[in-house]
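[09:14] KT: can someone run the structure on this one? pasting the chain below
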Amino acid sequence: MNPLEIGSMVKARYKTGAYIGRIKEERGKFYLVEVLAVLKHPQQGDLHNPKETEGVFFHERRALAHHEKANIPKSAVSAFTDDIPDYPASLRTALQQLREDLNGQPASAYRDLALSNMDSLEKDYFG
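[09:31] RB: done, structure tokens below
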């Protein structure tokens, strides 16, 4: 496998989301990746206590913004060779996929809070 270089198009996993981006810099064990599209919207809630609502701070987790740069461990970055979708369209698709996943889960306090966050995020993202 060819090593990734500055300017390479990549798929990058960041926390619970996944993105398409371009490597801007190499920083030791990390790449600085510029976000160009969203593949998977981050899960809602507390990363350390997934799907819990009691006794935790339930975070609203936003997707990384278009052209936002993030330090991502090299182990979470791989080459991307497909077409890069438009950022707003990819964000809308990722948000809809997460909503469908949540709606497919049994009713729970987590699901209700996460769907409420999704409604708020959708209004914020798209007006």
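[09:33] KT: thanks! The chain has a mean pLDDT of 93.
[09:34] RB: yep, looked fine to me
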